[in-house]
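Progress against Task 2.4 (sequence-to-structure conversion) is shown through the following example record, which the project officer requested during the mid-term review.
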Amino acid sequence: MKLLLDFYEQHLGGKVYKFTLGNDDVVKLIFKDTSQVFHLIGANHMYDKKFMDGTKFATEIRADNITLESLKKSFPKQYKDYVDRIRSVFCTDSLLKKCECLKFNSGQIPESKIKVKYLIIRAFDDANLHLGIDTHKGQPYYPKTLILASGNTRDKYINKADEKISIKKLEIIDIHKKQVLELVDREKAKQIAAQEVLKLADDWMNKEVNVPNKEKKNISFHLKNQLNSYLSSQKSVIEIKVKPLDPYLTGKIVAEAIRCFMKEQFKDRFFAYTEKFETAYQIDFKTLQRQGKEMKDRESHSKLEQKCTIRNKKISIDDD
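Structure tokens generated for the chain above:
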């Protein structure tokens, strides 16, 4: 338990996490001191509030009067229910830097007694860890509860939320010095990644591309595979420019930028280079247009299959 307080003081206490959300809402979350651990791990559900509060709880831990062993002995049933929350505190710093937000407009999660405005969420292996935060009379948000959902119930809070919102920017601020300790500009990182992918793709298509004779009848498909392999091989190059803006989700951002380019922009770039391909591979423009149309038709059919599968969750269109 002492290690828990040490972690809280070192990584969370005395800091403001200022989130700019994807809908441009700004959420200021304040971690004051170790007294907040009392509610965060659910200890308030173990003790009578008349005899224990956050400040006294932290003091008793420092004095070795409260340990994991003493909690387990004094509150065996509650300890079993809340031990995962105690352990999850050590993941809070990572959660805050790689998260999304679930918003509950009513200030309460439907079909529960949990009263929070937001759940800050991140996936850990086969579970989702949620930090519930709330506000009082327009004051900055404070950490209220930790919730771990796994197995079949992993996504239950996602399904109950009014909105699932991405994080555009995160500023970590020292409360006392009023200094920005760290700035994560996730939106800018995504923009840079997309720009670098487009630049690399154009550079690649401007060079001589080797297309075997047997592949010339389906040049668009062949070039798409070659370009995708090339961009994947250049991930580390792109990551160098993205990492200073977001060191926590660099790999994910770059991979998503490549995926989006291949899915949404490749066709346009393919037609932009038709004259080059006509000359290099002696394929007329009508053939390139036809190949491009076939590519679009295949993608449209794929999207239709996905919609059918979603609408008929129990019966896939691929079933006999």
